C-alpha cells in the first residue's frame, strides 16, 4: 500500500508540476506576443489556475525614419517650398496672359489698319460688276479640301453641312458640288437617287474619287448615283430610274423636263457663278412641283450685317476671288429675293457672313395675290394723280 500510496503521490505531484508548467508556458506565450495585439482570454478558466486579467490595448511605437541620417520634416521649409511653387505658377500664368494679350493686340491692330485702308473703298458687290472666276477651280481642285478644312471647322460650316444633309430626301440633285464635301453626311436610307453636277471636270473627278474612298457599301447599294460635268444654268437631266447601270446611261442634259427633284442642294455656289439669279430660277424649274415638300437647300457665304466687316470684304474680295474663285461680298439675301423663291427658313452665322436657307417655289395663289396687289396699287396711284391735277374742282367733273 505504501508503494501504491507513494506512486499515487508521485503521480499527483507530477500532474501538478505538468499543470503548472503548462500554465507557465501559456504565460510565456502571452508575454512574447507583439505590442498592439490583444491577448486571448480563455472562455472558461481552468480549475487549476486563476483567471487572467483583461488585456488592454497598447499602441504601437512610432515609426522610425528610414536611414540613419534622416531628420524630421521642418514645417518652415515646407511652407517656403509651397510659396515658391505658388509664385512660379503665378509667373507662368502672367506670361501666358501677356502672350495672349500681345496676340490679340496684334490681331486688332491688323484689323484697324485694314479698316483704315478700306475707309474710302466703295466696291460694287453686284454680280454684274464682278468678273467670272469659275475657271480657278480647275487648278485648285486637288488641294481644295485641305485648304478649306480648318476654316470650315472653326467657323462651324461643317456642322451646318451635317444639319443640312440630314434634311435631304427623295430624288436629290446637288449642283456646284465641287469635291462633294457633303457626300459623307447624307443618309442614304432616305435617298432614292443622287445626282452631282459641277462645271469643273477636275472637281467632278475629285468627287468621284471621294465616293470610291467612302465606299458606303450596302447603305447605298440600291441608290443610283451619278457624277456629271455641265452647266447648272441650262437644262439638266431628270432623276434616274432603275438601277445603278441605268443611272450611268441617263446622263443627257436634254430639255423638256418631265419629272423634277425632291431636294436640290447647293453649297458655296452663288459666290462663284456669274449669273446667280438665273441659277436660282433654274433650280426652281427643276424641282418636283407636284411635291409640296420639295425644297432647295442653300449654304452660302456673303455680306455681313456689320458695316465695317462689309468694308473688309469689299477690300479683299478681288484678291480672294483670284485665289479661291469666290466673291464673298455678294448680298445673298438680295439674290434670293430677285429670284422669286419663297423663304421657308433662314439662318446666319459668323457675324452674318454664312447664310443658310430653306427655299421653295412660290405657290400659284401667292403669285396671284402679288399680281392683284400690283394692279390695285396702280389703280390707286392713277386716282391720286387725277385728284392732284384737278384740285378742289375735281368734284365738278363727276
Description:
The protein is an alpha/beta fold. It has a domain at 128-366: Vaccinia Virus protein VP39 (Rossmann fold). It is 45% helix and 12% strand. It is built from eleven helices and seven strands. A seven-stranded mixed beta sheet has the order 3-2-1-4-5-7-6, sandwiched between helices. Strand 2, helix 6 (201-214) and strand 3 (225-229) form a beta-alpha-beta unit. Helix 8 (276-285) packs across helix 10. The termini are far apart. Residues 1-31, 364-368 and 391-398 have low confidence and may be disordered.
Helix content: 40-55%
Q: What's the name of the CATH homologous superfamily of the domain at 128-366?
A: Vaccinia Virus protein VP39
The CATH architecture of the domain at 128-366 would be 3-Layer(aba) Sandwich
The helix count comes to 11
Poorly predicted regions: 1-31, 364-368, 391-398
SSE succession: HHHHHEEHEHEHEHHEEH
Distance between the termini: 174 Å
Strand order of the largest sheet: 3-2-1-4-5-7-6
Mean pLDDT: 76
**Largest sheet entry:** 7 strands, mixed
Q: Gyration radius, to the nearest Å? A: 45 Å
Amino acid at each position: 500500500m505504501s508503494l501504491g500510496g507513494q506512486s499515487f503521490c508521485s503521480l499527483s505531484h507530477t500532474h501538478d508540476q505538468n499543470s503548472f508548467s503548462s500554465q507557465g508556458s501559456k504565460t510565456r506565450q502571452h508575454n512574447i506576443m507583439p505590442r498592439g495585439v490583444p491577448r486571448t482570454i480563455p472562455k472558461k478558466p481552468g480549475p487549476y489556475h486563476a483567471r487572467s486579467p483583461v488585456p488592454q490595448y497598447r499602441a504601437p511605437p512610432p515609426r522610425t525614419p528610414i536611414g540613419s541620417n534622416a531628420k524630421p520634416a521642418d514645417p518652415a521649409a515646407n511652407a517656403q517650398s509651397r510659396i515658391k511653387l505658388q509664385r512660379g505658377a503665378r509667373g507662368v500664368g502672367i506670361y501666358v496672359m501677356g502672350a495672349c494679350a500681345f496676340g490679340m493686340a496684334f490681331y486688332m491692330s491688323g484689323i484697324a489698319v485694314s479698316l483704315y485702308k478700306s475707309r474710302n473703298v466703295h466696291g460694287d458687290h453686284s454680280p454684274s460688276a464682278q468678273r467670272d472666276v469659275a475657271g480657278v477651280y480647275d487648278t485648285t481642285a486637288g488641294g481644295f479640301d485641305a485648304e478649306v478644312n480648318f476654316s470650315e471647322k472653326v467657323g462651324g460650316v461643317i456642322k451646318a453641312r451635317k444639319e443640312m444633309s440630314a434634311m435631304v430626301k427623295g430624288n436629290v440633285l446637288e449642283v456646284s458640288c465641287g469635291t462633294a464635301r457633303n457626300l459623307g453626311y447624307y443618309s442614304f436610307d432616305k435617298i432614292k437617287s443622287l445626282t452631282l453636277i459641277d462645271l469643273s471636270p477636275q472637281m467632278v473627278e475629285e468627287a468621284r474619287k471621294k465616293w470610291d474612298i467612302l465606299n458606303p457599301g450596302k447603305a447605298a447599294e440600291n441608290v443610283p448615283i451619278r457624277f456629271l460635268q455641265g452647266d447648272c444654268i441650262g437644262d439638266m437631266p431628270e432623276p434616274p430610274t432603275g438601277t445603278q447601270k441605268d443611272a450611268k446611261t441617263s446622263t443627257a442634259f436634254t430639255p423638256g423636263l418631265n419629272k423634277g427633284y425632291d431636294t436640290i442642294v447647293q453649297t458655296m455656289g452663288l459666290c462663284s457663278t456669274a449669273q446667280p439669279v438665273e441659277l436660282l430660277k433654274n433650280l426652281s424649274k427643276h424641282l418636283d412641283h407636284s411635291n409640296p415638300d420639295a425644297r432647295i437647300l442653300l449654304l452660302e457665304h456673303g455680306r455681313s450685317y456689320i458695316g465695317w466687316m462689309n468694308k473688309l470684304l469689299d477690300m479683299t474680295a478681288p484678291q480672294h476671288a483670284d485665289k479661291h474663285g469666290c466673291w464673298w461680298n455678294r448680298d445673298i439675301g438680295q439674290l434670293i429675293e430677285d429670284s422669286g423663291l419663297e423663304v421657308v427658313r433662314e439662318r446666319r452665322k459668323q457675324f452674318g457672313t454664312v447664310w443658310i436657307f430653306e427655299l421653295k417655289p412660290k405657290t400659284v395663289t401667292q403669285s396671284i395675290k402679288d399680281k392683284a396687289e400690283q394692279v390695285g396699287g396702280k389703280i390707286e396711284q392713277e386716282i391720286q394723280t387725277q385728284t392732284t391735277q384737278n384740285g378742289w374742282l375735281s368734284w365738278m367733273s363727276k
